[in-house]
TrEMBL record:
This is Cytochrome P450. It comes from Penicillium canariense. One of its GO terms (biological process) is mycotoxin biosynthetic process. Signal peptide: none annotated. Keywords: Heme, Iron, Membrane, Metal-binding, Monooxygenase, Oxidoreductase, Transmembrane, Transmembrane helix. The keyword Heme applies. Heme binds at C497. Its cofactor is heme.
Length: 562
């Protein structure tokens, strides 16, 4: 039948089936289902083919109904067709289940039985968008190596980060990174050579002169946020909202040389509102790419799937505007110039749109939660906020050379990234065909490995008092860190964070400005409620999304030189 991408000729096969007794036809389709599993589905990648497979199944049912109707001439034809096709589907699913439970190369690893059977179990566990907590519970129950999917092992050993992305790593990016297809941004490219080529184009946007321009824009936008806070005059401020406005405004300039102007209009830009709604898809669906593709197909004009496609269309429009504008000093300049040089602007549309999406999402939705959690922790720990104040109060925000050397400021940032990583569980990798050893445990070839930074940053084997926010562990009390391998906030090697320098400038400037000008605390009687909302309701949507944070900002009596 025409079930697998047109591999079979439907009519002759169906005609042959129609000549056999019903029971024989069902039995034959059962055998075919097992063969299709072992000869077709068990090989290669099928995560992008979900819609096509469903269409093929529907077409097969229609053909079967037609053939059965020619024999019976009554409504039983529909039932017979359903039984025949159902026999195929049932045997296919049973074959898959038996293989995964009893013969799969990862069957010996501990983990929930249902997780080894299907990733749909994991998707259900993540229905509230808290995969970081799901994996934390699995680590407590099953240990350092856990089977979290039929072909997926989640590793909670501190050395896993270096093994996955270190200079000698032979791992590759997993099917998760096909989320944007047919668009492809620099961080979603799975082919190493192609990735390295695109990365070199991006690097041109991070020159020293570019960093100074970005710093000026960052400082200007930070002062815009400061003005909104000051206007509140002691009333509770929705600081997490302002921080997201600030971060996305900066990334608009960084990517397209135009701000979203949310800090000046004091309202969400419609495209960013769509983006943030669309990102909720990544909570449950991030671990099941094939289900996401089916959802994108079935619900294209509905629910948050509509927001997802609207966001992609908006990024495409912005890239088109940027292509036809004079050269500006932004990250798009290098990638557009390369396409113009090769006269392939039209052919490169999907790459350019993908890069636009990556710039906005990876650049904004990672810095913003880090800023939110840093301010949140400083509000929880006013003694540490005062300690930081005395370090930054007289520093010129334009003096990056001084900012980057401030020990306690950097310790505050590093400790925030450890306890609240911007990407809590993302970064899926596939082992090479020959497999690989991880701390004495062999991981079979072509197995997806997950290294959840949220759990790795809280390992008792690596950190003393791991769930406490103690910046001193990265400053005056290094003995609180027992093993540094589990903490690589910006990754390393070919997949290290391209925007690290821009992110650090945002963090240095914004934290220094707010701490030097204000004391901040929770609204009266709202401390415990805020803690539960910010941390307890945090969502893992590839990037961390903390709950809403409101604080009362009180101007310091001694005016800062800033």
């Amino acid at each position: 039948m025409d079930l697998i991408a047109g591999r079979f000729h439907a009519e002759p096969a169906m005609a042959f089936l129609a000549e056999r007794p019903l029971l024989a036809r069902c039995a034959l389709m059962g055998v075919i289902g097992v063969l299709v599993h072992h000869l077709v589905f068990i090989k290669n990648e099928w995560h992008m083919q979900g819609p096509r497979i469903i269409k093929s199944a529907i077409a097969a049912y229609v053909v079967l109904c037609f053939l059965e109707a020619r024999k019976t001439l009554d409504v039983s034809a529909f039932g017979h067709a359903g039984l025949i096709l159902g026999s195929f589907v049932l045997s296919l699913l049973l074959s898959i289940a038996a293989y995964r439970l009893f013969a799969h190369r990862t069957r010996h690893f501990p983990g929930p039985r249902l997780a080894g059977l299907t990733k749909l179990w994991h998707m259900y566990q993540c229905r509230h968008g808290q995969n970081h907590l799901v994996l934390e519970r699995m680590h407590r129950e099953y240990g350092d190596f856990v089977r979290t999917g039929p072909s997926e092992i989640t590793i909670f050993h501190p050395n896993v980060l270096a093994l996955l992305d270190g200079p000698r790593s032979k791992t590759s990016k997993s099917v998760w990174y096909d989320f944007l297809l047919p668009n492809s941004g620099v961080t979603t490219i799975r082919d190493r050579g192609w990735h390295d080529q695109r990365r070199r184009l991006w690097i041109k946007g991070f020159s020293n002169s570019a960093m100074e321009r970005y710093r000026e824009q960052i400082e200007a936008h930070a002062r815009d946020m400061d003005a909104i806070i000051a206007a509140a005059n002691g009333r509770p401020v929705p600081i997490s909202t302002y921080i997201y406005w600030f971060s996305f405004d900066i990334m608009g300039i960084f990517a397209f040389s135009r701000s979203f102007n949310m800090l000046t209009t004091e309202k969400w830009h419609y495209s960013i509102r769509n983006l943030r709604r669309a990102m909720t898809l990544l909570g449950p669906f991030s671990s099941v790419p094939w289900a996401a593709q089916i959802g994108f197909w079935l619900l294209k004009g509905y629910w948050v799937v509509h927001d997802w496609h609207t966001m992609i269309d908006w990024c495409a429009q912005q890239m088109q505007l940027r292509i036809h504008e004079p050269d500006s000093h932004d990250v798009a300049q290098g990638i557009i110039a390369d396409s113009r040089k090769r006269n392939t602007v039209k052919e490169d549309q999907q790459q350019l749109v993908g890069d636009a999406i990556v710039a906005i999402v990876a650049g904004s939705d990672t810095v913003a939660p880090t800023l939110v959690f840093a301010i949140y922790q400083l509000a929880l720990n006013p003694d540490k906020a005062e300690k930081l104040y005395h370090e930054v109060k007289d520093v010129d925000l334009s003096d990056l050379a001084t900012l980057k050397k401030l020990p306690y400021l950097n310790a505050v940032i590093m400790e925030t990234l450890r306890l609240h990583p911007a990407v809590p569980t993302g970064g899926y990798r596939d082992t090479p065909p020959e497999g690989m050893m991880v701390e004495g445990t062999f991981i079979p070839g072509n197995t997806t490995i997950v290294a959840p930074r949220y759990v790795l940053g809280r390992l008792e084997s690596c950190f003393i008092r791991p769930t406490e926010w103690i910046p001193e562990r990265f400053d005056t009390q290094p003995e609180l860190v027992k093993d540094t391998r589990s903490f690589l906030p910006f990754a390393q090697g070919r997949y290290s964070c391209l925007g690290k320098d821009v992110a650090m400038i945002e963090l240095w400037v914004t934290i220094s400005l707010l701490v030097s000008k204000y004391r901040f605390d929770f609204p009266a009687g709202k401390r415990e409620e805020t803690i539960e909302r910010v941390e307890g309701r945090m969502r893992d949507q590839f990037t961390a999304t903390p709950g809403d944070l409101s604080l009362v900002f009180t101007k310091r009596e001694v005016a800062s030189s800033q």
